[in-house]
Amino acid sequence: MGAVRRQSGRTGGTFVAARKVERDLRSMAGLPSYLRRQGFSADARVLSTATIEADAETAAALDLAVGALVLEIVRVRLADGEPISYERARFPAARFAGMLDHGLGGSLYELLQSAFDVKPGEAMEQIEIVGAGSAEAKVLEVKRSTPLVAIIRTAWDRDGRPFEHS
User: Fold this and answer.
1) To which H or E segment does residue 47 belong?
2) Are 109 and 56 in contact (CB under 8 A)?
3) What's the rounded Cα separation, in Å, for the pair 105 and 98?
4) Which residues have C-beta within 8 Å of that of residue 156, sequence separation ≥ 6?
5) How many CA atoms lie within 13 A of 20 on its CB side?
6) In a 10 Å sphere around its CB, with 0-12 CB exposed, 13-18 middle and 19+ buried, how is residue 64 labelled?
7) Would you write out the chain's pLDDT as a tens digit for each of its 166 residues?
8) C-beta of residue 47 within 8 angstroms of C-beta of residue 75
9) Nearest to 73 by CA among 102, 47, 109, 92
10) Contact assessment for residue 135 and residue 154, using Cβ atoms and an 8 Å cutoff
11) CA separation (Å) from 17 to 14, 88, 160?
12) CA-to-CA distance for 112 and 156, rounded, in angstroms?
């Protein structure tokens, strides 16, 4: 399934290149569906869950008061068993009571649709390059300060209500 790449030199040869995950930014599908469509086995490992007070950034993104309760889910996303993403997602606790009692290893968007009747509408993403911090480096199995793509996303349902900040 991987493409072939050639490398010249003493240690050269023909190798099967690692497959790359492609992401379609025109739709609001969750990462597992993107991965499955490309032939990857998708999974997530939950690192922690908590009910915390919203900081100023989270409160503004979710249209909440600073200090309102939010659910925080921290996971590492896997493709064919390999870590590809470190995810910290926050959701309004009042709207999603009981969410942390569900299985959180699959698509959170699928869970939100089936258990809470949330239909994703649109999202805004800010993308920047950052150096891996110690927590991200450990989870993603890379060296500290390795360049990573950071995506800060706020998602709204079809009624225009924000439901996720990650």
Assistant:
1) strand 42-53
2) no
3) 16
4) 120, 121, 122, 123, 162, 163
5) 5
6) buried
7) 444 445 666 666 655 545 554 555 555 555 555 555 666 677 889 999 999 999 999 999 999 999 999 999 999 998 888 898 899 999 999 999 999 999 999 889 999 999 999 999 999 999 999 999 999 999 999 999 999 999 999 999 999 999 999 9
8) yes
9) 47
10) no
11) 9, 30, 42
12) 12
Secondary structure of 110-126 as H, E, C letters: HHHHHHHCCCEEEEEEE
Which pTM was predicted?
0.79
Q: Of 65, 79, 91, 115, which Cα lies nearest the Cα of 166?
A: 91
